[in-house]
Specification:
This protein is of the alpha/beta class. 48% of the residues lie in helices and 11% in strands. Strand 6, helix 7 and strand 7 (192-195) form a beta-alpha-beta unit. It is globular.
Length: 301
C-alpha cells in the first residue's frame, strides 16, 4: 500500500510529563498540545530522545500515544510516534499499535544492541516495522551520538527507495550538514529530511531544508519559527542572529547538566506547562542551583 506524507515545517519532540513519583501524567497533554499550537508548532513527536522513550515501558508508551492521539483530534496537529529503542517484538507491537490508532507517521531508532553497520541491514530491520504498520508513513531516526549507528544516510535512502515503500524520510540529529544535504538529494529528492539539531537550524534552512524537529521547539518555540520565516523572507542577517542566540541558550542549558533534564527545567520555568523531572537514570539539576539556572538563562531569552 502506498501512503502519503505531506507534513512540512516544525515539529516538537515533546517531553513525557512525569508525576513526582516518576509515573506518567497524561492529564496535561491537551494543554501541552494547545500551548504548542498557539506557539506556531503544528507537529508533535512522541517518545523520541526528549520524550525519554527508551526509559518507558511498552504500556506507558501505548498510553502516551493514545493520549496524544486524542489531544490532536482537537488541534489537528500532525502526530508522529517514535516506536524504536526496545526489544524487537515490542518495536513491532508499538508500530502495530500506532498504525491501529491512525497516527500520522511513525519514527524508529535502529536496533540499539545488535547494531546495523550496513545500509541493507538497516533496511531489513525497517521492513519488519513497515509491515507492522502498513497504513502509516515511516521515518528513520538518525541519531548517531546516542544510538551508535552512523550509516551514510544518502546511501541508505538510495538503497531503500525501492525496498521500503512506506519510508518517507529521516529525522537527522547530527550537525554534519554535508551528509544531510546529500540525503536531501538522495533518490531524486523524494525523502523529507527533518533537521534534528538546534545548533544548525539557520544554515540548514539557508541551503534548502524546510523542516525541523528540535528540542527548543518546546520551551523556546519562537526561535525555530522565526528563523524559518526570516530565511523565507531572505532576511539572512536576522536568521543568523536568531540562530546565534539560540545556540547560546542551548549551550547555557547544557552547562548545567545533560540536555533533557535541562530543557525540561527550562520548560517548567519559562512556559505555562510543567513537565516534571526527567526519569532516572538521567540526573536532574540540584534544586539549590535552579535559581542560578534561571538567572543565567533569563537574560538570553
Amino acid at each position: 500500500m502506498i501512503v502519503n506524507f505531506t507534513f512540512i515545517g516544525l515539529m516538537a519532540p515533546v517531553f513525557t510529563i512525569f508525576n513526582q513519583d516518576f509515573s506518567v501524567n497524561t492529564d496535561k497533554i491537551p494543554s501541552y498540545a494547545n500551548y504548542l499550537l498557539d506557539s506556531g508548532i503544528k507537529g508533535i513527536l512522541v517518545g523520541a530522545s526528549s520524550g525519554e522513550g527508551t526509559s518507558l515501558s511498552v504500556q506507558e508508551r501505548k498510553i502516551l500515544t493514545e493520549a496524544w492521539t486524542s489531544a490532536v483530534r482537537n488541534t489537528s496537529q500532525h502526530l508522529m510516534v517514535q516506536v524504536g529503542g526496545a526489544p524487537f517484538p515490542d518495536v513491532v507491537d508499538l508500530a502495530r499499535h500506532a498504525d491501529t490508532l491512525g497516527v500520522d507517521s511513525i519514527l524508529t531508532l535502529p536496533e540499539l544492541y545488535f547494531k546495523p553497520t550496513k545500509s541493507q541491514e538497516l533496511i531489513s530491520y525497517l521492513k519488519f516495522i513497515s509491515a507492522a504498520a502498513p497504513n502509516t508513513p515511516l521515518l528513520y531516526y538518525h541519531h548517531p551520538s546516542l544510538s551508535g549507528v552512523n550509516i551514510d544516510m544518502a546511501e541508505f535512502l538510495n538503497e531503500a527507495s525501492h525496498q521500503v515503500p512506506n519510508l518517507k524520510g529521516v529525522k537527522y540529529a547530527s550537525n554534519d550538514l554535508a551528509v544531510a544535504h546529500a540525503a536531501l538529494r538522495a533518490a531524486n529528492g523524494k525523502y523529507r529530511i527533518f533537521i534534528g539539531s538546534d545548533h544548525v537550524i539557520e544554515p540548514a534552512f539557508s541551503v534548502g531544508f524546510d523542516s525541523a524537529i528540535v528540542a527548543s521547539s518546546n520551551a523556546f518555540p519562537r526561535y525555530s519559527k522565526e528563523i524559518l520565516q526570516a530565511v523565507k523572507d531572505k532576511q539572512l542577517e536576522r536568521a543568523i542572529d536568531l540562530q546565534q542566540n539560540l545556540t547560546k541558550i542551548m549551550t547555557t542549558v547544557t552547562k548545567f547538566g545533560s540536555k533533557v533534564p535541562g530543557m525540561k527545567l527550562a520548560m517548567n520555568l519559562f512556559t505555562p506547562i510543567n513537565v516534571g523531572l526527567a526519569r532516572p537514570p538521567l540526573q536532574n539539576l540540584n534544586p539549590h542551583r535552579i535559581g542560578e539556572f534561571r538567572s543565567t538563562l533569563e537574560p538570553l531569552l
